[in-house]
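TASK: fixed-backbone design
INPUT:
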């Protein structure tokens, strides 16, 4: 995204709240989501401004949690120049030295969908993304915008992983990663490897941050984000170091 892209002031945008629904992360909790008006496309400038305020993208929608009496979902990002891989992450990086990475537009491909559908069935059959469908995949991870990309991971010309991400003017935003599931490939920790690759790509592009979405301290599935230290957390309208 270009820093010369005209910005619309956030105060001029319209937003909508969903009705309360079951929280996907904390059992027994209700969640409410704040959405940018669906008539507003997530264009550069608007997207850049809202990402700094903790908004994420899903398909053509920009959203963030807006739950009454709960602020468990915290936006986190990695200041990439300060990041130094720990021992485990260095091992994962070396273990995947034979992975070939390619960056492509976020367009639909049957090979991507097949990998995604198998991943959802094997890893998230108890979640709200099950059962997978082509329409679900298209509306979630495909977008014909210059900032939307897919990072393909190949092992011996076999597609073993895909990471969807956006390029903002102040960083990359990791959207979603899915990969092949098997006893052999599980040892590669492809999810962690994808984040390490996006950190390196951020550095190559001289972008200061990698946005990892939301972090909930009480949610076991999100604890992996804590390993990418140092993390910054959005506190109101200000980003500060996460100290634990």
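OUTPUT:
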């Amino acid at each position: 995204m270009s820093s010369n892209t005209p910005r619309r002031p956030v105060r001029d945008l319209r937003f909508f709240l969903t009705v309360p629904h079951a929280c996907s992360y904390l059992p027994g909790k209700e969640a409410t989501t704040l959405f940018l008006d669906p008539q507003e496309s997530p264009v550069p400038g608007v997207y850049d401004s809202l990402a700094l305020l903790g908004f994420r993208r899903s398909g053509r929608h920009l959203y963030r949690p807006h739950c009454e009496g709960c602020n468990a979902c915290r936006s986190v990002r990695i200041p990439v120049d300060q990041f130094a891989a720990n021992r485990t992450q260095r091992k994962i990086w070396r273990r995947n030295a034979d992975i070939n990475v390619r960056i492509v537009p976020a367009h639909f491909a049957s090979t991507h969908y097949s990998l995604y559908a198998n991943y959802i069935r094997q890893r998230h059959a108890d979640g709200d993304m099950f059962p997978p469908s082509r329409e679900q995949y298209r509306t979630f991870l495909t977008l014909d915008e210059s900032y939307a990309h897919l990072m393909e991971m190949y092992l011996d010309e076999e597609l073993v992983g895909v990471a969807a991400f956006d390029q903002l003017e102040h960083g990359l935003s990791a959207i979603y990663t899915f990969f092949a599931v098997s006893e052999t490939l599980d040892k590669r920790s492809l999810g962690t490897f994808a984040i390490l690759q996006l950190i390196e790509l951020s550095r190559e592009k001289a972008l200061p941050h990698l946005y990892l979405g939301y972090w909930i301290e009480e949610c076991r599935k999100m604890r992996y984000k804590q390993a990418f230290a140092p993390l910054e957390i959005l506190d109101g309208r200000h980003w500060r170091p996460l100290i634990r």
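COMMENT: Confidence is low (pLDDT under 50) at residues 1-6.
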